[in-house]
Amino acid sequence: MAEIKAQPFAFPFRRQEIALVVIDMQRDFAEPGGFGASLGNDVGRITRIVPDVKRLIQGFRDAGLPVIHTMECHRPDLSDLPVAKRNRGKPSLRIGDEGPMGRILIAGEPGTAILPELAPIDGEVVIEKPGKGAFYATELGNVLREKGITQLVLAGVTTEVCVQTTMREANDRGYECLLCEQATESYFPEFKEAAITMIRAQGAIVGWTADIDDILETISHA
Ligand code: TIU
């Protein structure tokens, strides 16, 4: 059986059952004036991983493997936004407020869009999610079931918030999850390192982590 070199041990690769899930590579988390910046974060860290996320997406496309994108966003009437989420963090601009890129984290607004370099292409599933995890209140579980997917490679932002939450949701649902270390980022480098370490601890208690080149190497020969 093919394997991807990974930690804490090799990831058992099943070509027919694997998909890439790219979490929340949106302008709101990566550009000044968006949600991430409104929480006081240095958003420049996020843009630095764009070339590697792009390379990973291209590798999956070239191998004919599915790519799924997620976007953290809410309905314009805020009916899917808990008051507790809106008020959390005392942001300078709250979700739904008008910012320089449109309304913060609202579906259809310019700032909520996926970064143009990483935009989905025709046929790729885009999941709009109101929570940090991509399974809560979305169609992701059904989409994966219909495609026969049981293994997820994860990329995107931020490592310890939406990526890790999604990975934990997936792990509890029985998916085998592999996090691409170079294609994920946090506003806090120490949180990225800690998330990677805790995910693969205890014999991959949440999942595996791997180097981007090791993932691309295996999928390119599949
Ligand atoms: N604030 C933060 O680190 N992340 C989020 O709010 N959302 C995602 O991680 N996508």
Structural overview:
The chain is of the alpha/beta class and 222 residues long. The chain contains 9 helices and 10 strands. Helix 4 packs parallel to helix 9. 42% of the residues are buried. Bound molecules: tricarbonodiimidic diamide. The site of tricarbonodiimidic diamide has 10 residues, from helix 7.
Topology:
Layout: E1 3-4, E2 11-12, E3 18-23, H1 27-30, H2 35-38, H3 44-47, H4 50-62, E4 67-72, H5 83-87, E5 98-99, E6 102-103, E7 125-129, H6 140-147, E8 151-157, H7 159-172, E9 176-185, H8 189-204, E10 208-210, H9 212-220
Parallel strand pairs: 3-4, 3-8, 4-7, 8-9, 9-10
Antiparallel strand pairs: 1-2, 5-6
Helix pairs in contact: 4-9
Bound molecules: tricarbonodiimidic diamide.
Structure summarized in a few sentences:
The chain is an alpha/beta fold and 222 residues long. It has helices at residues 27-30, 35-38, 44-47, 50-62, 83-87, 140-147, 159-172, 189-204, 212-220, and strands spanning 3-4, 11-12, 18-23, 67-72, 98-99, 102-103, 125-129, 151-157, 176-185, 208-210.
The portion of residues assigned to helices is 25-40%
The total of beta strands comes to 10
Largest sheet: 6 strands, parallel
Low-confidence stretches: none
Number of helices: 9
How are strands sequenced across the largest beta sheet?
7-4-3-8-9-10
**Succession of helices and strands:** EEEHHHHEHEEEHEHEHEH
Supply the helix-strand structural class. Answer: alpha/beta
Bound molecules: tricarbonodiimidic diamide
- Regarding quaternary structure, what we see is single chain
Strand content: 15-25%
